[in-house]
Amino acid sequence: MSGPSTPEHTATAELLLVSPVALSGLALSSSRKRRITLTAEATSPKKIAVITRPGAVNTQPGSIHQSTFPNPLSWLRMAELVHIGTPGQAPQMPPPARHILLPFDLRDQPGDVMGSEKRELVWSIFPETTGISCDGFFVALQLRTLPPKPWPLTIGGAPLHLTLEIGSGEPIPRGRIVGLKNGFIAKDQNGRNMKDWEPLFHVIKDHFQGLEISITEVMYWGAFVIIVLKHRGTDMGKLPCQAAKMRCFYFFDDEMGRPAAPQARRLTDPVPGNPDNSQYDTLQPGLRVTSSYLPSHPGIFLSTTSGVLLKDQHGSEFMTVASHGFPAERGTQVFHAQPGNGRNIGELIMEISHTDIALVKLRDTEIFSNVTFQSDKNRQRFETVSVDSPDTGFIDGLFMGTSFQAIPSDENSPKLQWIFTTWIYGGQDSAINLPEGMCGSAIWNEDGDVFGFFRYSPKQGAMKNYCCGIAADELINRGLTLVNTSYKI
């Protein structure tokens, strides 16, 4: 991801090798970084722990990409290689790491961890392990004593969950089920691992419309679907048990932890938490943008985050922002980093209906450095994705699934618009690091492909520790594409 024009820093990550052999020759590259280090970024481990047996890795210079590891390491900007552990030592707690790599990949077949050879290696990573389980998504390790936080996000590429008791608090959302006698939806189809599940969504939506049962979201998880019911008084006897040979799980809308309305941070001065309110000469995704001052309350404004630079079919260029950060009473002017002591960078000219995304026409004097942009068609479950907001700095998570959410057409109409959204898992207790002010931040993968734009992260309920974003497809389907800004830097 490109950063501000000045100054230039180097982002650093560590590769921790837990093996009696050492590695060398890993190619390095550089990247720009924020002017200050934010708390969430500073406390999130950047290390990659590689757990192997002796002889599992080729030790010749430059051989890391030809090793037996299935997880590509090319996204590491820099790596400090550390050799720890010797044969015959008593098991020790692994060093703090965001991702634990193994000589095998658990993303395609997480259940393989129960095989004797793989199970033995996974069992040995944490010295107080007393149990292992896998639900097809998360690998759960039961420990006698939980290690100090922060905990790893992945193990062998699959999401990791540490617990004192298997079956307690696993993060995969599974709601209510109903009996087989309730019937089926699309029983002639096989919905598992669909590349494009939108046709199935319409079948489900139309079925519930025919039942006159109000639903607010349909989530697709590859092996099952989650259907969110608007009312707690819904007759459960009418709910189908399967859709396209997949189990249907049900939640009520008030269990989803959604905010009553999208929130923008209200500021008079920089808020506690040390956000990055620095002013940058070159604009980019993930910088502080604000509304103008409220005329009736001098000194008060709303704070959100810059998205990406797009162009329409006519070649006109626009920067995306969270539209709720610019209510009508504050006018249409957009500032970076703050009004008063910042600069006026452009004007909000259009809202993308029902998406909470607005388009800003930048001033001719502004330069915007972009990232690449791609549809959801190449998304892979458990793929590492990242957000870089002025409130958190660079943090990562795992793409888990997509959904269609119902958005009212307007306050006075019962008609709903269905918006395509993405769901990202941030790790255990990650929700506390995701404030409302990061609304509008771009969510992208290791290749720089933008998946969507941060909307909210439930602090409680069924989707705690996940974050929801408006999918980039909502803009692509309206004829907007990413601007290639490489020539401007």
Automatic annotation (TrEMBL):
InterPro entries in UniProt: Peptidase_S1_PA
Species name: Lasiosphaeris hirsuta
Protein name as catalogued: Uncharacterized protein
Top-level lineage group: Eukaryota
